From TrEMBL:
Biological source species: Tieghemostelium lacteum
Stretches assigned to the MIF4G domain: 25-232
Entry keyword annotation includes Membrane: no
Gene3D superfamilies: 1.25.40.180
Protein name: Initiation factor eIF-4 gamma middle domain-containing protein
Domain of life per record: Eukaryota
Amino acid sequence: MSYQNRGFNPRGGNRGHVDSNEDLKNRLTSLIIKIGDKPSSAIESNIDGLVNALLHDITTQKEAIQNILFKCISQLPYKTPIYGTIVGIINAKNAEFGKEVVCRLVDEINSALLKKQFNQLKLLIRFIPELINANVLPITAIFELFETLLSFLNSNSYTQNKSDYYVYLVLATLPWIGERLSKTNLGQLNALVEEVESYFSTRSNSEKKFYQPYKESDDKLESILKYIKSLRDESNWHVDSILQPYLHFQEVLNTATQHILPPIVIPDDSKYEYPLFTGSCFRLIDDLPMKPIEKFIVEEYLVDIMYFFNSNHREASRFLYSLPVTFEIDEIVVECILSEIFRLPESTFKPIYYSVLFIDLFKTQQSIIPAFAFATNHLFETLDQLDIEIIDRFAGAFAHHLSNFDYKWIWNDWEPILVGDSADQSTLLKRYFIKRVLESIVRLSYLEKIKSVLPLEYHAYLPPSVSPCFKFYQETTDVSMGDKTVEPMENKELVSESHKLLLLFTTKEPLDGIISHIANIPASVNVVELLTKCILHIGVTSFSHLTYAIERYITLFKAVFKTPADHQECIRSILEFWRNSQQHQVIVIDKFVTFKILNPQDTIQYFFRPENYSQITETSTWEIIHNSIQKTMIVIDVLSQDLEANKDSAEIQQKLDSALQEQQQLFITLLNGLNDQIQSSVVQSHPLNLKLITGYLKSVSRKYFNQIKPILLNNSALMQIINKISNQ
């Protein structure tokens, strides 16, 4: 639809009324954002109409127009050529506007560099070729840009992550300008590609397997170089998936004034954490009909859209299928979303965001359903090639997906895995995956519902019915025990003491009175277990009740828990009380750590005691461990910020040093514990457990590498273990 048909006069004639300034801004915003939503032969007339509209209001709305343009440039990647052409045409008629856009572009680039806005920086850099195509900048500007980005390759003051990123910027920009350069500056273009290739000859890829989510493949930078070489050798630098609207306006654009590109300044970035490019790419489908470069461009579009629209999944899903391509992209979309879920060491956003995208697309783009089903089955059949952490993510995302579609799946196809006595690792891993999926969907629903939709063969893999196990029970008690399933208790002394304590809680006895009562309990009674389970019992109705009970009796806990052994007994009591609900175990222990009744290190020490080794392969165990680690990181972040604001505070510095030391001790306990388990004869004789525990160690080392690096530098034995699993 042309802009004339939207009730807007692009020629700027007399209007029936004068819009308010805000209305005008809103209308211009809408027009700029929507242009190119439906790529067609009418795009040129739409551009022409929009340019005339902008020229009419440019005197009063210049700043607003530039603001809108730059927001679109950095968030709508496939429309970059359209916005470049618009700026070019306006520049031909208003050179000052073109100059201001160029200066602002460089300011935005320099700002993005300083703020480490790497995704936005890539799209801003990519706008420079489009300004060259639109004759706003001379063609020499692109070589000035590339020289700046690659300048540090001739020095020793760079890390591989840094050099990878800037090489990536160059390679990821070339498809937008390569065809133009091949016609006018072929020698310089070839020299540029050769310079990049020479960098690859010295580049290390020793970390590739460490960050490999699936079967072995090229890392991201290696893949892009192959795409660029195929673009050069097979497509003569032409890319169908990149719009070229400027070709229609050559006569106007050639009359424009060109501007000088101001300097781009690479900041002193010794503390920057650059994106990682050394991990293997997630590749699910190898034989797609389009050219490799077309697949790469579509992947770039998809990843950028998912990144910039992460706060609005519906808009993201809409834009994913608004790309200027003529081929089907369902398989690429599925692979791309899965690759983001499976990104190592962690996803850019929480996996649930990507899962929700699938849900949206199932409703609006049903052609994606067969591609999703194929991908799910293919991954299930090749689970032994997936990293353990990725298997867990896959199970969680798949369970969430099922919960939104009435748990419908071709369950009968997986039944053969569950029957028989096969003990090969592939079968065991598939059973592990199914168990993980079932645990997750029960959390998202309830047990009886899931039983009703699953074939009988799956029931043995379902978790037990959620119920507390309060063993201090006797039917004659006057204290209400609720309607939960409980166990009889043979120790009358414990039963009696539990009833007395519960009565004190029920009647809201003053805290001093309760402390005095507990102090007089016979030494033969396990007071830590008694107190912990009684508090859990009075909070059993809901998590709100539990939070209230814990918060009310924090002082009581701290008065009773006096030794590390008491903390260990508290954890054991929690796990026993909620042994029929892993979700409750995770949440309750997290609350105890949050209220500082337990320390993060207590949980790590508990699970790596020899008598608790059997629990280390449980999902809930690793949720508890990661929650505990995150608690230490939050404390350190807060103290670091406080120290930044109060640089001379010896007290804050001391607290920070203490927190860092405690965190290091936590990681030492964790790494040594995992290493001991891997070396134990019990684990060595159980292939699945060996694979799982090795996978957990690998996952921890990836996720918290910056935190454990100082430990590894001072512990050669642990360093050897990490190096060994990195290549598995």
